[in-house]
Amino acid sequence: MPTDENKPTFREMLSGETFHYGVELVSSRGLPQMEEGDSKLLKEAEALAADPHFSWISVTDNPGGNPMLPADWLARHLTKLGSEIVIHLSCKDLNRNGLESAAWRSASEGFTNILALTGDYPVTGFGGNATPVFDLDSVGLISMLKAMNDGLEVPGRRGKTEELPATDFFIGCAVSPFKQHEREYMPQLFKLARKVRCGAQWVIPQLGYDMRKFQELQLFCRWAKLDVPLIGNVYLLSKFVAGMFNRNDIPGCVVSDKLLEEAKKYAAGEDKGRSFFRELAAKQLAIFKGLGYDAGYIAGVAKAETFGAIIDQAESYGENDWKEFAKEIQFSTEEEFYLFEQDAETRLSDFDRMSEDYLVSLLHPTASKNVSPSYRMSRTIHDVAFTRDKGLFGTMQKLYGKLEGDGKAKQATGKVMHGLEHASKQIMFGCKDCGDCSLPDCAYLCPRASCSKTGRNGPCGGSHNGRCELDDKECIWARAYDRTKYYGESQAMFDGPPVLYNPNLEGTSAWANTYLDRDHNAPREEQPAPLLPDPKPAKKRKH
Fold first, then answer.
1. In this structure, is residue 528 part of a structural domain?
2. For the segment 26-70, what is each residue's pLDDT rounded down to a tens digit?
């Protein structure tokens, strides 16, 4: 493998003072397409690797939910050329064992820069759409990679625990700040804090064209004391791609109606909008550098020389030009929610002024349709019967303890109680009898019944206008946010350790498993501190 002792690693790039640029390489489906005996895909990869504009190459993992050549196949070819590589690893196609295996393979081949993703819902496959896995989500994957870095402990011989050799993954995560409404935006930010706590070491936002939202991500990280590098994400648009992003055909990528109109207008010109789209990308990169992002990242359907020219254009601007560009590139949606007030001069957000409307709403939240009588009753029942060291918890713990063990009478009673439990929960929540219940984690919404990706640790990036990525239901986490905010608990909705579902409990009594400490609710040696600081006090409204 060629090496350059003077070339910084990806980790060093994000901690240094130089603003580096990375580029995305998308794999292909099927055998590599050949041109004159050579692979078109490998030619593209080689051109990116040879271009000095790009400090690293990021290789995607079945993007858009499509089956493609695996990321590490491409990465092996790129390392022969001396490229610094980031590999995407997503949870949609592999269960936790498959993900761990893929991680070991990456580590053994020297690929330590991993972008951990939940992944897009599969949209195609042989003979029909593939069945998604989502055994872990991005939080679970990050937690697993962190455990591998710490020396993963696994069952060994004769009941002893064995510690495996420690890896050295540089773990990245994504966040989607381009959400129109508070109920989608805030859970995205809160989940980012959970990802960082679980081991994420760098962050890349998903795609959008509102620089104020990119800046707000910086401000949130500063407020929440998340000391992680941020990489600015740019996609070279075309009229066709702008339309796809506007329709939410690619989950998490947002183009507003106003920007789509601009794209159509310039695409009608002589050069089909090429100059406009390239300038837009160059200005975004310049803004990221001006804002103090740690690096820039560019993607799209273009050749290496096109991306290189965009970087050259970004570098050609004056030192303070980015400030005017930031005012210009704010293609927000209608009634866009922002966490911080806007500064009149810069038109960006002001760190010293958190949104007054938001702060007042924390003190005086209003009920929504999601704060239902069923939810209120569920909270009461949980407080009385399922809160440790309170109410009926001790009594129920003793009762379920007595039903353990042999004896036909005990087993019959246990089956009857499990049947009653499942029937009542199925009627109220659509319970799937998983045995490791996350209703309290999800504001009494069953993640199996109400989330296409069965997410238990927060929202994926694919929701749009409050609806699931599949557009077949309301996003479970937007609903959960409504509920927790009404009771003054939204800031703490992701406190606590990550939720890792135990498949061994499938089809057993979740109540028994909770009372007998067999599920993820069992006490842990250390309970993490609150995830987020308290918001600044709200000001009184002037009437």
1. no
2. 988 876 665 554 678 888 899 999 999 999 999 999 888 889 888
For residue 421, tell me if it sits in a domain.
yes
Q: Domain of 80?
A: 1-175
- Is 295 within 8 Å of 22 (Cβ atoms)? yes
Q: Does residue 194 lie within any of the structural domains?
A: no
Contacts of 408 (CB under 8 A, 6+ apart): none
113-117 and 170-175 strand pairing? parallel
Average of per-residue pLDDT across 523-537: 84
Long-range contacts (CB closer than 8 Å, 24 or more residues apart) made by 40-49: 41/69, 41/74, 42/77, 44/303, 44/304, 45/74, 45/77, 45/78, 46/81, 47/303, 47/304, 47/305, 48/23, 48/83, 48/304, 48/307, 49/78, 49/81, 49/82, 49/83
Structure-block tokens of residue 398? 């003793």
Report the alpha-carbon distance of residue 23 to residue 215 in Å, rounded: 21
Domain edge (last residue) among 140, 158, 175: 175
SS3 515: helix
Q: What are the tens digits of pLDDT across the range 438-449?
A: 999 999 999 999
The number of folded domains in the chain is 2
Beta bridge partner(s), residue 467: 464, 474
